[in-house]
Amino acid sequence: METLRAILPEPIRQAIKHIPFDQVYELRLRANAPVVACVDGRNFSLPADVTCEDLENIVHKAAEYAIYAVLDQMVKGFITIRGGVRIGIAGELVTDRGQVVAIKNLSSLCIRIPHEVKNCACAVVPYVFALNRPVTTLLVAPPGAGKTTLLRDLARQIGTKYPTLNTLLLDERGELAACYQGEKQLDVGQNCDVITGGTKAFGFENGIRSLRPDVIITDEIATADDVAMLKRAVRSGVVVIASVHAADLGEVRAKPDLGVLVEQGVFERYVVLRMGEHAGEVVGIYDRALRHL
After folding, report:
1. Residue 239: CB partners within 8 Å, gap ≥ 6?
2. How many domains does the chain have?
């Protein structure tokens, strides 16, 4: 991915030449430490040390030397660049009246690289696509286990299998469709509208009102507001396909807000993933009563 290579210092560019870059999911850059690359689920230390100056330069290049233009993202802890590459940022928070207004003295970056794996959702499609339309589904997996990749392929397959349905993608961090200046960089299917950068609550409320979606796809349901808006969307007749960080269904049920949705049978399908030999390994698929299918 040339956009990413262009913002990296020369020693790091040289170091990553020796690894299969198409299988790299993350690069972790920590001040005064070697680069760590996550390659297909395994971590490798690379022969390139990182300085604080390197971290600052990477962020400035990622922002195209216009930090003010990406400040809204930075105060949320990340920057997304062309191609859907997300750069997570750690450093010293600058606050004003309890609100984060900037990040300075950067200490580390976590660069997450999206992978478009077409047809990776084929194993779950027969369960998620039923009765001539998709069904409301929750993907359950720990971080890095392939939820985003699977969601992207489900969006693409909905566009292929159900060309009359309108899909709305709530891409809060710009990773699913990787829109750049309004143009999708990754294949999320036909008849797919994308809202990038807004909160899920904004996307659910305003998207339903103005874009009339039949299906809403979103990553990482986390807050009480997310859960409330998801429930309202389903009650209004919209199919929702979402994901959540959790190791298993027991952990989902233990979450105060999501647990209520489980008990009420809001989700018709649950797809549980884990980080196995490869990201996105399906552990099990369950119906709304949590029966294994």
Report:
1. 133, 134, 135, 136, 214, 215, 216
2. 2
- Can you state the angle between helices 224-235 and 256-263, rounded to 10 degrees? 20
Q: Is the same domain home to 106 and 160? A: no
In angstroms, the CA 76 to CA 89 distance is 9
Question: Could you list the residue range(s) of the whole structural domain that residue 51 is in?
Answer: 2-112
Co-location of 49 and 10 in the same domain: yes
Q: What gap in Å lies between CA 147 and CA 142, rounded to an integer?
A: 9
* Other CB atoms within 10 Å distance of the CB of residue 68: 8
pTM of the model: 0.86
Q: Among 112, 140, 175, give the residue marking a domain's end.
A: 112
pLDDT in tens, 165-219: 999 999 988 889 988 878 888 999 989 999 998 889 899 999 999 999 999 999 9
Find out whether 87 and 59 touch, Cβ atoms under 8 Å.
Answer: yes
